[in-house]
Write a structure and sequence with these properties.
The chain is of the alpha/beta class. Mean pLDDT is about 95; it is low at about 490-500. The protein binds methylmalonyl-coenzyme A (MCA) and adenosine monophosphate.
């Protein structure tokens, strides 16, 4: 039975679970347009965090479609890539995104559907909404990796159900919870750990259109929030805002924050300094956990009990975790190994990339590319097996993908992208370039050019122009040597950072 319980609060408006049910039915009817099942058609949609986002996501699922969330921060070429790669049959957009999206949809020959049309124009309700078997595809989230272009991670309804059920259990979500959600909604941290978990238990999800430290503090100060989850870069900004505030505000904010029952950090390594400072300010030892788009959460510190600084805890329910050496042999405690996972939460496939999907699994175990060690029963992350994956602001970006774009700059002959340790962002994207003869290039020039082509977090933040990139005897670019071109002025890493970036992590042979 749907009651008057509030599902979503956004922009000063409250939307009940009845509203969500009615609007998602309306969206489903409009998308179905007289058919009885979308049969896993991909529906790409772009809406800022808010009620419309949730209604469209649910409406797609109720109509039997596959939800493909687009990123509000992405420039047109990135949006177009996702729309084309997913072979979307409909592109849904909120009014603010119609400008960039309508021409892309037109050029790709895809139906364009403004959100307000889906929500308001009466559509004949289908006699019956389709039956959603658990093995049906539900969502494609694009993730950067060791391939040049982002891959679509396909999750089924069963995968999503298992992910949500596991988090509801370990973090003890209840209908009385009120989540403050300040994460983007094109990644699982926001989609599953945030929105999906809150809605699964009929709790209230308060959504901010974008992260803003003062607004978050103000909401903590209200004493109404019970759950918050963010990336380390957000906690760093919150700490900076608290330190800049007058004493009365600090007191009110800290008092409110103490009343939050659960505060979590993830998506990137939480620096020990940040953990300690946050504890001083709020009394909370942040609950750090480890996950990935391909399975959502895999490891978590406990809700009750000791949260060990620098550790990401133990496997979440429904996920098996093992550490293996380069030959796939399980390593013993204390020996670093690559994390492999299996379980119902693990994704189905990379969209239309059977070879990549095949390569990502070993005997049914998903190979994460992250390296960890198990000590006294808990896991500690050490780094990644690939130097070409960079984590910046909690976003995973591929050096290969950025190189492919940057290489098309008219002044650039060759380039190499690396991640350099950074106190604020975890890692920052840096580029070393060989220029075309007689060409010149400054960082601001490169950034202006790149912003039109790449998401803001992929735009290089440091530049070195070199005569020749460091290479080995067979001409391969040596990424560690490239990283060392960037000195202290580019690298703001403090001494206490848990540095998971930069070099390749070693695992047992
Ligand atoms: C933005 N800026 C940056 C970066 N991002 N500079 C360097 N590196 C970056 N990565 C610059 C902008 O260009 C701008 O500079 C200034 O910082 C402020 O930009 P703004 O857009 O305001 O930044 P922001 O939007 O406030 O971004 C900070 C953020 C964001 C809110 C912490 O990074 C964020 O939302 N991160 C969350 C990522 C996430 O959800 N990851 C989940 C994926 P200028 O003013 O000079 O232009 S991982 C996942 O889902 C798995 C399952 C998991 O484990 O969780
Ligand atoms: P994504 O593919 O965007 O979902 O990013 C997943 C990656 O984020 C993982 O493979 C890890 O490298 C990283 N990650 C997630 N949680 C943590 C954490 N608590 N500490 C360090 N890295 C993390």
């Amino acid at each position: 039975m749907n009651g008057p319980r509030v599902a979503i609060v956004c922009g000063g408006r409250r939307h009940t679970y009845d509203d969500l049910d009615g609007s998602s039915r309306q969206v489903a009817a409009a998308l179905l347009a007289g058919e009885n099942d979308l049969r896993e058609a991909r529906i790409a949609f772009l809406a800022p965090p808010g009620f419309e986002y949730a209604a469209v996501q649910r409406g797609i699922w109720r109509a039997g479609g596959v939800a493909v969330p687009l990123a509000t921060s992405h420039p047109p070429p990135e949006l177009e890539y996702v729309i084309r790669d997913s072979a979307a049959s409909v592109v849904v957009a909120d009014p603010a995104s119609t400008g960039p999206l309508a021409p892309i949809a037109r050029a790709a020959g895809v139906r364009f559907a403004p959100v307000e049309g889906l929500l308001t124009v009466p559509a004949a309700p289908p006699d019956e909404l389709p039956h959603l078997g658990p093995s049906r595809r539900a969502m494609i989230v694009y993730t950067s990796g060791t391939t040049a272009r982002p891959k679509g991670v396909v999750s089924t309804h069963a995968n999503i159900g298992a992910q949500v059920a596991s988090l509801v259990e370990i973090w003890e979500w209840t209908p009385e919870d009120r989540l403050l959600l300040a994460l983007p909604l094109h990644h699982l941290h926001g989609i599953i750990n945030g929105l999906g978990s809150a809605l699964a238990v009929r709790a209230t999800c308060e959504m901010l259109p974008a992260f803003d430290a003062l607004t978050v503090w103000d909401r903590f100060g209200s004493g109404e929030i019970t759950v918050f989850t963010g990336v380390p870069a957000m906690y760093q900004r919150l700490i900076a805002a608290w330190e800049a505030a007058p004493p009365a505000a600090r007191r009110a904010w800290s008092d409110g924050a103490r009343r939050v029952r659960l505060m979590m950090s993830g998506s990137a390594a939480l620096p020990l300094q940040t953990l300690a400072r946050w504890r001083e300010i709020t009394g909370h030892t942040l609950l750090e956990r480890y996950g990935m788009t391909e399975m959502c959460m895999a490891l978590s510190n406990p809700l009750h009990g000791e949260r060990r600084p620098g550790f990401v805890g133990t496997p979440v329910p429904g996920i098996e975790v093992r550490l293996v050496d380069e030959n796939g042999r399980v390593v013993s405690d204390g020996t670093p190994g690559e994390i492999e996972v299996r379980g119902q939460a693990v994704f189905l496939e990379y969209w239309q990339r059977p070879a990549d999907t095949h390569a990502a699994f070993r005997d049914g175990w998903f190979r994460t590319g992250d390296v960890a060690v198990r000590e006294h029963g808990a896991y500690r992350l050490l780094g990644r097996t690939s130097v070409d994956i960079i984590k910046t602001g909690g976003f995973k970006v591929s050096a290969l993908e950025i190189e492919e774009v940057v290489r098309t700059h008219p002044a650039i002959a060759e380039c190499a992208i690396v991640g350099i340790a950074d106190e604020q962002w975890g890692e920052r994207v840096a580029v070393a370039v060989e220029l075309q003869s007689a060409a010149a290039l400054s960082l601001p020039e490169l950034q202006d050019w790149a912003k039109a082509r790449l998401a803001p977090y992929k735009v290089p933040r440091a530049l070195r122009v070199v005569e020749a990139l460091p290479r080995n005897a067979v001409g391969k670019i040596l990424k560690p040597d490239v990283a060392s071109l960037f000195g202290a002025s580019d690298n703001a890493s403090g001494p206490e950072r848990r540095d998971l970036g930069g070099g390749k992590a070693q695992i047992a042979q």
